[in-house]
Amino acid sequence: MLGVFLAHDPAHFNVSARRASDMPSFRTGLSEAIANDLEDDSYDLSWLQELPANDAGAITMLRRLLENERDPIDRHYMHCELESRLYRSRDAFESALVEYDKACELHDLEMVEIRPALFEKFDRMPVLDTYRQSAIRAQKARDWPRVERWAQRGLELYANHSARPEAVNDLHKRLAYARTKLASAAESASAY
After folding, report:
1. How many Cβ atoms are within 10 Å of 139's Cβ, its own excluded?
2. Of 27, 64, 126, 171, which one has the fewest beta carbons inside 10 Å?
3. Does the predicted TM-score (pTM) go above 0.70?
């Protein structure tokens, strides 16, 4: 994969000097991080190009990479890719969703270090798919305390710094729905 980077003054081309995280297409920040990888020596996303095309091989490699990598941005995107590959493999092998849930838990534990690095890099929080997808999985299982936990945790991490308001709105809706279900269950239990 080759790329060309043009160093220029945006004003010379009548383009405003907007941050990548301000642009409407900004989502997870991965494309922006890749585009700036050569300029930013704090992380190295070249491992993405080395991942096997097949999910099983990529999962094995990502787990091995996570054993040694220390940079929070690299670790974040490794976790994201591992989760994506595991979820995509849910029909390929039986333990994929259990492994997916464990991967999400481990990713969440590291957000104490990852969140500040992402915020420093992008000046806002990119979309954190882990929280939405984990809340959805819990909702499908009708595990309302788990929906509440994942949605609340995602909202804590976004704080008031989300690059995509719809990601925050989605978690607010899931949180409200879970709390309604929990209150209804508590009300039913107290009636007996």
Report:
1. 18
2. 64
3. yes
Task: Confirm if 128 and 157 have CB atoms less than 8 A apart.
Answer: yes
- 93: tokens are 């092998």
Phi, psi of 124 (to 5 degrees): -170, 175
**125 by DSSP, 3-state: which?**
strand
132 near 164, Cβ under 8 Å?
no
Nearest Cα to 135, choosing from 108, 163, 154? Answer: 154
Neighbours of 164 (CB within 10 A): 19
Q: How far is CA 51 from CA 9, 43, 146, in A?
A: 35, 17, 32
Residues whose CB is less than 8 angstroms from the CB of residue 134 and which lie 6 or more positions away in sequence, other chains included:
101, 104, 146, 150
Distances (CA, A) of 144 to 34, 89, 102: 37, 25, 18
CB atoms closer than 10 angstroms to residue 144: 19
Q: 88-112 pLDDT, tens per residue?
A: 999 999 999 999 999 999 999 999 9
Q: Which residue has the tokens 């043009």?
A: 6
- Band (pLDDT 50/70/90 cuts) for residue 9 is low
- Tracing tokens 């922006």 back to the chain, one arrives at 32
Which residues lie below 8 Å from residue 96, measured CB to CB, with a gap of 6+? 86, 87, 89, 90
Q: What is the DSSP letter of 128?
A: -
